[in-house]
Design brief:
With 69 residues, this protein is mainly α. Helix content is 71%, strand content 0%. The protein has helices at 8-30, 36-61. The chain starts with 7 loop residues before the first helix and ends in an 8-residue tail after the last helix.
């Protein structure tokens, strides 16, 4: 069953897909450049975005106190 555009999960799932694609791109690029600072910046960026993906998942599951009513 497809979610309606008016349903919050429609948007959280869409953003999670886009963020996961960006995370994969960041981690792929880490292997292409031989600069430790670049690698650290891209890995840190991937980890931060991963935190956003988790926050969206937590919102969908309502398993964090902040998302419960």
């Amino acid at each position: 069953m497809a979610l309606s555009e008016t349903h919050p999960a429609y948007h959280t799932q869409k953003m999670k897909r886009e963020l996961n694609a960006l995370i994969a791109h960041l981690r792929e690029d880490i292997t292409k450049v031989d600069d430790p600072q670049f690698k650290a910046m891209f890995e840190t960026s991937a980890e931060v975005l991963g935190g956003l993906v988790k926050a969206f998942s937590d919102y969908e599951k309502k398993n964090e106190a902040a998302w419960q009513r």
